[in-house]
């Protein structure tokens, strides 16, 4: 590694001052699980590291407007084990549990993970499906960014170099909603996904139709992908297995995976459809089984004459 200066600001204001001083030569460091690897590989060469570990106000998970406010420095492990998260949004705890190993999850932070923007990461599809937003602050003030429009390319986001992710907000699930995240990892349990899919479904229970659906996928493009056309297939439609299959077909058209050691592009595309359908089924099961998709009855067998 090349030599670098190490700053340990105690407040956001101090961190922002350091960022201003070094400009694009500086890098924030939170858990360090992604950044240190990139520095060792000389993919990034900051002359100054600004540690967020001692910055006040970036920790804690609290209830806000019925949803959850998660500090940018909260670790994956804290989210996974938080009784508040498990009670209010169990899908979030479950998703973070899928990331790597306990060792990585103990260090890796929510803000660091999102800023890293590797399209193979697990949390983004779930956070997008849940309608989460990111709050980013700089010396010019702060702004709220829907996670849906946050990722722009491989390891790229809309964040400006002087912006710090201070919190993530995840709204409450609407009534009559079910949510699911599925990670397909055929190699080892701590691997990145070959394909991942997150779904949130909201039903009008009286009429048994989808009033809202959100579908997002990971590992099948240069960013996490929201499958809007697949969602549109279901909105306003009765809960039926054929509709889920049709949405899964549309989801396949939304993805653009690359071939690598986790599978060929065509295999991943196929699996994207399979895992979207399964994630929709699982989200419906989460609605106490009452919203399960009806299978159409098989046609009666004809008697041979
Ligand atoms: C062995 C291994 C296996 C992994 N497996 C998985 C997996 O299965 N699934 C998965 O989802 N992920 C996986 N990961 C990736 C892991 O999720 C990321 O490394 C982690 O989330 C990064 O968080 P961090 O706090 O360590 O970020 P850091 O390494 O500290 O920083 C990452 C980037 O974010 C920037 N940054 C940090 N904090 C902020 C902030 N608050 N605001 C703005 N920018 C910031 C840094 O400048 C840097 O560019 C794996 C990582 C490792 C090392």
| First and last CA, distance | 81 Å
The overall pLDDT average reads 93
Largest pleated sheet: 5 strands, antiparallel
What is the count of β-strands?
14
CATH topology of the largest domain: Uridine Diphospho-n-acetylenolpyruvylglucosamine Reductase, domain 3
Give, in spatial order, the strands making up the sheet with the most strands: 4-5-10-6-7
Strand-and-helix sequence, N→C?
A: EHEHEEEHHHHHHEEEEEEEEEHHH
Q: How many distinct folded domains?
A: 3
Q: List the ligand species.
A: flavin-adenine dinucleotide
- Uncertain runs are 296-305
Structural class call reads alpha+beta
CATH architecture of the largest domain: 2-Layer Sandwich
- Report the total helices: 11
In percent, how helical is the residue content? Answer: 25-40%
**CATH first level of the largest domain:** Alpha Beta
Specify the overall morphology. globular
Percentage of β-strand residues: 15-25%
Description:
It is a single chain. The protein has 305 residues and is α+β, with helices and mostly antiparallel strands. 32% of the residues lie in helices and 24% in strands. The chain contains 11 helices and 14 strands. The strands form 4 sheets. It has a 5-stranded antiparallel β-sheet. A 4-stranded antiparallel β-sheet has the order 11-12-13-14. It binds flavin-adenine dinucleotide.
């Amino acid at each position: 590694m090349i030599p670098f200066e190490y700053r340990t600001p105690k407040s956001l204001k101090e961190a922002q001052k350091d960022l201003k001083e070094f400009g694009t030569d500086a890098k924030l460091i939170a858990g360090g699980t992604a950044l240190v690897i990139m520095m060792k590989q000389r993919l990034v060469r900051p002359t100054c590291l600004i540690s967020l570990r001692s910055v006040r106000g970036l920790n804690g998970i609290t209830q806000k407007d019925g949803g959850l406010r998660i500090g940018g420095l909260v670790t994956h492990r804290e989210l996974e084990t938080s009784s508040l998260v498990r009670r209010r949004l169990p899908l979030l705890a479950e998703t973070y549990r899928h990331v790597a190993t306990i060792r990585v999850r103990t260090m890796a932070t929510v803000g660091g993970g999102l800023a890293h923007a590797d399209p193979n990461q697990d949390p983004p599809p779930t956070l997008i499906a849940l309608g989460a937003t990111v709050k980013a602050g700089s010396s010019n003030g702060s702004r709220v960014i829907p996670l849906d429009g946050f990722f722009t390319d491989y390891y790229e986001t809309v964040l400006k170099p002087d912006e710090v992710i201070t919190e993530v907000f995840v709204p409450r699930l609407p009534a009559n909603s079910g949510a699911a995240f599925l990670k397909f990892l055929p190699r080892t349990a701590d691997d990145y996904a070959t394909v991942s899919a997150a779904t949130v479904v909201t039903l009008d229970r009286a009429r048994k139709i989808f009033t809202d659906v959100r579908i997002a996928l990971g590992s099948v493009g240069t960013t996490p992908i929201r499958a809007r056309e697949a969602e549109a297939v279901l909105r306003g439609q009765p809960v039926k297995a054929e509709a889920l299959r049709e949405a899964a077909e549309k989801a396949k058209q939304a993805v653009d995976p690359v071939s690598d050691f986790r599978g060929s592009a065509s295999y991943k595309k196929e699996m994207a459809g399979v895992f979207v359908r399964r994630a929709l089924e699982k989200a419906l099961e989460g609605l106490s089984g009452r919203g399960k998709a009806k299978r159409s009855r098989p046609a009666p067998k004809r008697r041979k004459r």
